[in-house]
Design goal:
globular; binds D-xylitol-5-phosphate; binds zinc ion
Length: 218
């Protein structure tokens, strides 16, 4: 069963609550919240106030993707605001174990992300400790970028590592996921699809887009 995680980065923020309710009803498994600090990535996005604002809007899990240089500094704020899962990057925490422990001690799920230029096997030592591994399929920083096609092999490689080290770990992909690219990443082993533009920018609206992606990925 493949889970759909709409990324609100592509949503119309003047209607954020309604749009989150809509994708929730359409069958989204979780809501993906992209946090950017202008340092780790060349863009700014949102902070914990958005998590706090969305917490009463949906019972689906809120997952925070921290694209920030110093994730430890912001962790408590997101946990207190109501995040269920916190994902941070191996690029900024070469030893991610202390942060993973802090997230687990708070009773929440931990995810580890890595960029398209990071050798996939560098995540292997930590797969046994996390609930989710996020294989970036674009360089993070902006929504609406084209899927990097060589990511398919990386997803396949990550799936093999997950089978060996932690079969219940989620394999999530993020960046350029749409009706064209979804079937390939699912066939390669992804079981959580993040999609921003393909859902909130869809011509026929977010409900149809969530259902279509879920059907393709089933
Ligand atoms: C990339 C973010 C993604 C992004 C996905 O910097 O981590 O979550 O918003 O957006 P789309 O689906 O538009 O590529
Ligand atoms: Zn993301």
């Amino acid at each position: 069963m493949t889970a759909i995680a709409p990324s609100i980065l592509a949503a119309d923020f003047s209607r954020l609550g309604d749009l989150v309710r809509e994708v929730d009803r359409a069958g989204a498994d979780r809501i993906h919240i992209d946090v950017m600090d202008g340092h780790f990535v060349p863009n700014l996005s949102m902070g914990s106030v958005v998590v706090k604002g969305l917490r009463p809007v949906t019972q689906k899990s809120l997952e925070v993707h921290l694209m920030v240089q110093d994730p430890g500094k912001f962790l408590e704020g997101f946990l207190t605001a109501g995040a269920d899962r916190v994902i941070f990057h191996l690029e900024v925490e070469p030893d991610p174990r202390p942060l993973i422990s802090r997230i687990h001690q708070a009773g929440k799920k931990a995810g580890l992300a890595f960029n398209p230029d990071k050798p996939v096997d560098e995540i292997a030592p930590f797969l046994g400790l996390v609930d989710l591994a996020l294989c970036m399929t674009v360089f993070p920083g902006f929504g609406g970028q084209a899927f990097i096609s060589s990511s398919i092999d990386r997803v396949r490689q990550l799936r093999e590592l997950i089978k060996t080290h932690n079969p219940t770990c989620d394999l999530e992909v993020d960046g350029g996921i749409d009706a064209v690219t979804a079937p390939g990443v699912v066939a390669a082993g992804a079981n959580v699809l993040v999609a921003g533009t393909a859902i909130f920018g869809a011509k026929d609206g977010p409900t149809a887009a969530v259902k279509h992606l879920a059907d393709l990925a089933a």
